[in-house]
Amino acid sequence: MSARDMFFPKGTQFSDAEERAFAREDLVYQVTETLLMAMEDKGVSKVELARRLNKSKSHVTRLLDGSRNMTLASLSDICFAIGITPEVKIPVNLPEKRSESGWSRASFKQDAKTKKASYKSESNIVIVPSATWKRVA
Hints:
about 140 residues, two-stranded antiparallel sheet, two-stranded antiparallel ribbon, 5 helices, about 45% helix, globular
């Protein structure tokens, strides 16, 4: 459930700036929650992650609670430290219909016979385990 769903009646109209802010907060929430779940699955605490990153626990906490801006470099470092590979998918051509959150969720796939592009719905960011990344202990 997003902040939009919790605090505003369905069908409420928002300005572009408000839509942008909701989209940003939704993305931050999706990424940080996915990282926290991956850490739990891998048995990595914030203290252990901080040690692996050579950062303070408070720095890691601020990154994971959304109060500090997480760069792609920080995301990559965190994923490497917990032994997962981040996969960011940004659609080439957005589908005509957007989800209620304002985000379009699509992935590009080209048909081998017709050479036409097709799209299938999936999340904006997928983090998958990978044996190719060296696990930092």
